[in-house]
Amino acid sequence: MSKVCIITTSLRSGSNSDRLSEELIRGAKESGHDVEVISLKGKTIKFCIGCLACQKTQQCVLKDDAVKIVEKVKNADTLVFVTPIYYYEMSGQMKTLLDRLNPLYSSDYRFRKVYMLSTAAEDEEYVPEKAVSGLQGWIDCFEKAEFAGSLFCGGINDTGEANHHLVELEESYAFGKALR
Predict the structure, then answer these.
(1) Is the pTM of the predicted complex or chain greater than 0.85?
(2) What order do you get walking across the sheet with 34-39 strand by strand?
(3) Superfamily for the 3-177 domain
């Protein structure tokens, strides 16, 4: 099928978003996708300094783990960002990575579909709206790409709690199976 790059952004050990992403990954693999998972745990990703050198060279002047991630994202057909919701927004490390993916803007990137899986302690429907909006703003800069869908799993807070949310685990699996 397609090459899917799943980027998990939680830095918490045993995180709920990681547990939900495991089911998403299982579903994507069972659908025949070639899946690569990138976790931001243990990665050094500096803040973008706004020099815009990458617009001419497709290379960032900063040398850290983002450089390898940029290459993997560039060569994927489908992207899935997995994030906990912090203060009604995507995690800070996800936003920092999105900024550092700027070298892709003027490159010949392959990705066309972009998805988001998010989780939070709060479970109201509006909780992920700002995170989705932030990702949509990033996608809007890539005219060949589109936001293809989102799954929000709310009401999950304590470490390991996702293991007891069977409905959300099944939804994550189905979400992964349905990736295009």
Answers:
(1) yes
(2) 34-39, 3-8, 78-84, 113-120, 146-154
(3) Flavodoxin domain (3.40.50.360)
44 burial level (CB within 10 Å; 0-12, 13-18, 19+): exposed
Residue given tokens 């709060």 in the structure block: 122
Over range 146-161, report the average pLDDT: 97
Please state, in angstroms and rounded to a whole number, the distance separating the CA atoms of residues 33 and 21: 15
Mean pLDDT (whole number) for 123-146: 97
Indicate the residue type of 116. M
- DSSP states of 98-127 as a string? HHHTGGGTTS-----EEEEEEEES---TTT
Give the pLDDT of residue 1.
Answer: 75
Confidence tier at 169 by pLDDT (50, 70, 90): very high
CA atoms within 13 A on the CB side of 158: 4
| Beta carbons of 115 and 77 less than 8 angstroms apart | no
Show me where the domains of the chain are located: 3-177
CA dist., res. 85 & res. 97, Å (int): 16
List, as one string, the DSSP characters of 28-47: HHHTT-EEEEEE-TT---PP
